[in-house]
Amino acid sequence: MRYTTFGRTGLRVSELVLGAMTFGEQGGVGAPVEECRRILDAYADAGGNTVDTAVNYRGGASEEILGELLAGRRDRFVVATKYTVTRDATDPNGGGNHRKNLRLSLETSLRRLRTDHVDVYWVHIWDRHTPIEETMRALDDAVTAGKVLYVGVSDTPAWVVSRANTLAEWRGWTPFAGLQVPYSLVNRDAERELLPMADAYGLTVTAWSPLGGGVLSGKYNAGAPATRSRLSRDAISDRDLGVAQAVGAVAGELGVTPAQVALAWTRRRDGVLPIVGARTVEQLRDNLGCTEVTLPPELVTRLEAATGFTPGFPADFIDQTRSWVLGAAAV
């Protein structure tokens, strides 16, 4: 496992992030505690050091299990959790990005994780009703108090993140060092605005659902999978199944698994760290194998052609008019 710094900070994070959304069996498909222990141990043995959870995952069980499993070795890991999603649907202030929910969510997470600080605290989803100034100042206060070391933002428009970090720069607050978005061969939307913005601001990107909800593992191409799955076979588009078929063909040529190909494609982009989640240690070990896969340029071209993705306006228009705008200076 190799390491990189988290955004424009000195924090070292591993090239694959372990997602703990599967930690716990509450609310559907997940892993029991002992299997979670084996998953975490296998990840650590491979050199992984960064674990991602949230205050609402498995109704709080994910954080509780992670806190139990990290006992005696917590400081060896970069522990990341999130807030925004409601803690109590009957409480008007139970969710959102405002200061009250941040404080109560953070205290809840610290108690469950059995620690006095989290290494990375993520804003989970943009809250349209809370001014971004309030959120950034509240996050900075949590950093000043020593309960949070670094901050990041997930599932938020590029213009909001840009404004947030500009405000932080102007006012001397802690800026976002990371961005979390869905990113895979079946969902390349982040390439339009979010990934260019992250590159401009020096943000590390952690990519959730890099296997497209399991579609890119190929398990749906032969019909409904035999094991429990989050998706129904009928809910998957022909386009996505076609992309998964292309991934499977490339995997066959390279002698690796489709999941390893899909993850290798996601991680080949500078600054992008896939979040790998697993319900079994065997699934995790398969995913970890992506670090040994190198995709030749011609195979990358084939995979991306299968997606039919285009950046759209304004990126396409800017590219098309480059010579018209710059004349002989176009490069």
UniProtKB/TrEMBL annotation:
Database matches in CDD domains: AKR_AKR9A_9B
UniProt lineage: Bacteria, Bacillati, Actinomycetota, Actinomycetes, Micromonosporales
Residue ranges constituting the NADP-dependent oxidoreductase domain according to the UniProt record: 15-305
Sequence intervals crossing the membrane: none
Pfam families to which the protein is assigned, alphabetical: Aldo_ket_red
Signal peptide: none
InterPro entries: AKR_Detox_Biosynth, NAD(P)_OxRdtase_dom_sf, NADP_OxRdtase_dom
Name of the protein described by the UniProt record: Aldo/keto reductase
Keyword terms of this UniProt record: Oxidoreductase
